[in-house]
Amino acid sequence: MKVKKGKLITLISCTALLASMLAGCGSGNSSNEGSGNTPKNPETNTSTNVDDPYKEPMEISIASWDIDSELSKLASDPLAQEMLKKFNITIKPVNTTWDDYAQKIQMWASSGQLPDIFAIDAIGTQYQRKWIEQGVVKALPDLAKYPNLEEFFKAPDIEGLAVDGKQYTVPRRMFPSVDWSALDRTVLYRWDLAQKAGITKEPETWDEFKAMLDAIVKQDSEGKKITGLTAAQVKMIGGFFWLYGNPLATSDGSGSDYKWIEEDGKLIPAVFSKNALPALQNMREMYENKLIDPDIALTKPDVSYDKFVSGKAAAVLIGGGFINFDGNVNTKRWEKAYPGVDITDNVKVLKPLVGPDGERHHAIFKTYWSESYFNGQISDEKMDRIMALYDYILSPEGNDLLTYGKLDEDYKIEGDKKVAIGDRPLHEKYPTRNFFKNLVSYETSDTYDMSNPSITNEKIRKEGVEYIDWILKNTKVPNYDIRLTYMSTPTKDKFNVLDHDDLLKVMLSKEPVDKVWEGIMKDYKAKGLDKMIEEVNAKAAEEGIK
Amino acid sequence: MAKMTNQVHKRSLWRTILQYKYFYIMVLPLLAWYAIFSYAPMYGVTLAFKTFDYREGILGSPWIGLEHFRTMMTDLELRRAFFNTIMISLVKLVTHFPTPIILAIVLYEFSRVVARRVFQTILTFPHFISWVVLSGIIVNLMSRDGIMNQLIVMFGGEAISPLVDENSFRPILYITHIWREIGWDSIIYLAALAGINPELYEAAEMDGANRFKRLLHIAWPGIKSTVAILLILHVGQLMSQGASFDQIFNLYSSPVYSVADTIDTFIYRTSFTTGGDFGYTTAVGIMKSFISLVLLVVANTIVKKLGEEGLY
């Protein structure tokens, strides 16, 4: 009897284990229940009341970076609740992280499990083109019904994203023009250490900058074996080193945003211009003279900020402009390391240096970064609801609400200024307002305003406002046609230029610069560089682009 | 006659299954695991002959014949990755495979059980730390202000950056791999050594065999068959685990791609960074599996020819 009981227990345990395994395998992504592998059949229409377009409640799934934590206080945010109620929607967050978002989204796309809205920077990539061609993402409807969105799409580089006259994405706008890209790659340097090393003038030219780094490194006034320039991320380095005479070669690191220039009567990617070699030589010289962090190839954001603030690096190349300067450098590190010491007296932001052509250049990217895409399977009704939400967030009413809170409750208008009421910070009162604002658009440029409290340190905010004013007046963006960057040709669609990888290779190689660069060019030619140039020139001539 | 034998065989098979039904039930979850995770996804290999279409999925994507394989022949980056995979795997096999055997023998020779356990625990510990964490530690150790460079400078040398140097990157892979796996891999050999009858040692000692002779004539023959089986398994996994993705991906950077980019890192970059066709990367994966299969068969044949028992 005992034996039989034992056998029965074994049998039950095995069956339960098997059942649980199979059950585990069977569960899919509930965000898209019922969706198969193929996004062929859009959701069927449900009845829509003409009088109240939002009568039908809707759940919208959104994949965005750290959305789980961003929306963890959604229920206690009265502003967000009001807005969601207005459109009769509930949000289902689908979390992605900064490390895995691109992989996750590509996997969801290939298995038909995409959420309704997802955030990624995919413009110009091979997979984004396929998503559009193969109906993975939904085209935006006629925007006449959404006046704020329609206006949003009038910026030239955003308008240029249309494929066969249709838009498939809402890019997150940061700046009103590419001149503002200067804020995306800024160099901070330790002015206190420079002064200790005998430097009295803030650097204006490359030679002066190099001389300053050299003086700081040689002086090593704090005895920390200080190194020269470090960077928050490897993919940022082109945003600085190309500025030595080849500014249009600057890239956001995606590999697909390379800009084209005309050289010797032919359109070529700016990275392969004859101006590349002097920039590379300048960079190598800096490296060999120990003016660049020898560990730059393996750098990480937090490590670089730590190095800079702790006096182990004389300068740091960062993204995110003065917002990052304020948050990651000042608030998180400087204020703790040097309490009571004003950072703006000791750390300066490098103004674009005068290059070999006598001009001051800064990095040139796009006016937006990352985009919202919409699952190709969602119904027209759901798309309409999403567009209405986006349009509202972009409207002056929605924008003011999400930036300043409620009129007469959180802020009042005095003349042409908005003045905060009360001491309670808005991010505590409305913890998800930034998420909703950034879901549609970053509008980073709004931060560079003395009445906008986003940059918490007022002195840094003031410097930021003055810096961008100075940039707009004193720097020059060379001519280029963004349509060439977006152009699709068979070879170009598969061609990537990861210039930061090439820069690192040149920087760290022991061979002469021209020889390394020749080898890199040879690799690109083997991947079809010449063929791509031919195709682009032919297509540009056909379309009348010069 | 043949039919009858077949029937008898069938009947006896069912009878055996019935007789050992509880064992068969116990093995069911394992079979289900293989069926679900190893065999069911195999339909995906057809992608190697298709161009992936998001709308149509794996089964519906259009066939393109051997185009991906033709592209592979002219892909210089893949050629480099292929060479690196073979090179790194082979050198790892040669440098790493004997080390746990040596360690197991050395540990076994410790007469003090406590010392043996302490060393075994210390040496096994790194195996349980992921490469993500370990690589962070290695990067720190080898950075300009890391302990390695501090020592070099202290002894009058010049600081180096071995992780971005083409000459030193691969040796770092080999050394760190041994460091991480030596303790863990020695466990099975220790178990094999423990399985040897102690009377054999005592008898040999009585006959005047010294420590080396005992090792050569008792310990080694005792673990030889285990070594053979593990060698076959290692060779079979040479292409996948030999050039470990986790290890390389977390340590490499573009200056060392020429010596460090392997098939796995190439597939990852092509699929997710540059967004290549999943069909192409599947074709590359198939090629890798095919080579693994050939290596496994070759290793098995060699081991059998050497008089040991093979896998099949």
Automatic annotation (TrEMBL), chain A:
- Where is the secretion signal located? 1-25
Record's compositionally biased regions (Low complexity):
28-37
Keywords tagged on the record: Cell membrane, Lipoprotein, Membrane, Palmitate, Signal
* Region (Disordered) residue spans: 28-54
Q: Does the record's keyword annotation contain Metal-binding? A: no
Q: Report the Pfam families cross-referenced here.
A: SBP_bac_8
| Presence of keyword Membrane | yes
The domain of life for this entry's organism is Bacteria
Q: Which SUPFAM superfamilies match?
A: Periplasmic binding protein-like II (SSF53850)
Give the Polar residues compositional bias ranges: 38-50
Q: Which PROSITE patterns does this entry report, sorted A to Z?
A: PROKAR_LIPOPROTEIN
Q: Which Gene3D superfamilies match?
A: Periplasmic binding protein-like II (3.40.190.10)
Q: What is this protein called?
A: Sugar ABC transporter substrate-binding protein
TrEMBL record, chain B:
Q: How does it sit in the membrane?
A: Multi-pass membrane protein
Q: Where, subcellularly, is it found?
A: Cell membrane; Membrane
Keywords recorded for this protein, A-Z: Membrane, Transmembrane, Transmembrane helix, Transport
Tell me the protein family, please. Answer: Belongs to the binding-protein-dependent transport system permease family.
Annotated ranges, domain ABC transmembrane type-1? 82-299
Q: Name one GO biological process term.
A: transmembrane transport
PROSITE patterns attached here?
ABC_TM1
Write down the superkingdom of origin.
Bacteria
What PANTHER family would the database entry show? POLYGALACTURONAN_RHAMNOGALACTURONAN TRANSPORT SYSTEM PERMEASE PROTEIN YTEP, PROTEIN LPLB
**Membrane-spanning residues:** 21-40, 81-110, 215-235, 278-303
User: Which GO cellular component term is one of those annotated?
Assistant: plasma membrane
Full protein name: Protein lplB
Q: What is the lineage of its organism?
A: Bacteria, Bacillati, Bacillota, Bacilli, Bacillales
